[in-house]
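May I ask you to comment on the folded chain given beneath this request?
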Amino acid sequence: MDRIGVLSSLSHHCAARIDALAAHLSENDIEHVESFIQGCENLDQGEIDLFIAPSNLVWDSKEILSNKGLSIVAALQRNHPFHVLVSSDDPWHLKADAIILCDEKIIQRQLLRRRGKIPRRLDIRNYSEFDLDSNSGEDLRKAQQMINEGEIDGFVIPRGCYSLAGLNERRHAMLPDAEEMAGMRFVPAPFVDLMLVLARQGFHPHIIQSWTNNEAKNAWLVTKAILERTPLEFHDRIGIHYRQRNVGPILEEAERVKDLFVLETLHDPEGEVDDLLRYEIIVETINEDGTMTTGIERVGPVDKLYVDIHFMMNDWNSILERMPLSEEE
């Protein structure tokens, strides 16, 4: 029987995800920890056997894992790897000068983006400007009341926060598929809805494969590789999308929207298509006023992911060298 420590936040509610996996974990001892450092210490000292934690905290505290000899062995399935706009208006019908609360720089810029040279005229603020914390359910309920009272027009949160905070205002998914978003595309901020399983060195991941998810683990590895090889000044202003799909749905979608890049990628020189599981990666960054977007996309067999990501990052850094930053940045 493994003893599992769980650390939750509103945006990465690991406890709720573990509750949903109760059928797989009925024989495990589950306990909640108060901080990331405490969870790592409990794991290091053998008080727990596994530690489930939000991926953003793992990324920010990599040195702790290294010092204690801990490793990331798995990840939990992602249910909603995107943000939502809580507002009576959808993202493409927000009025000019609408006041929107959003702490993610990449999403701020995606909201400002539009086709052509003229950016959208939205008034995007940080939560702190209204003395609110986006990781507090109570504060999100206050923000919802501010919409009802006309003080703001909307706010952006990870999809998982919406139900956990008890919100009931209209919400609008911010998805990376431009076709679904009527021409707008929101490549997710790194780490959204990504929760990791940590263990001491020597732990065998196959022991827990019945309740962990390989696609989510690959999403972590891809995000980690991208951030490790992207200059630090871009880290808070890049979007990263990763998912895995069977080739059939990808091919149907590419044919429907006439995506020649994907169609050429899926077919071999003889014009044949295999049935291998495919990965999709989108990485993008946007300048401050939303008038310039640069990015890179890859589609390929999952079994070639680790080789492909190496070459993709070479191309990505070449692109970034030509991406100008404003004086403020």
Notes: The longest helix spans residues 305-320. Residues 29 and 236 are 37 Å apart (CA to CA).
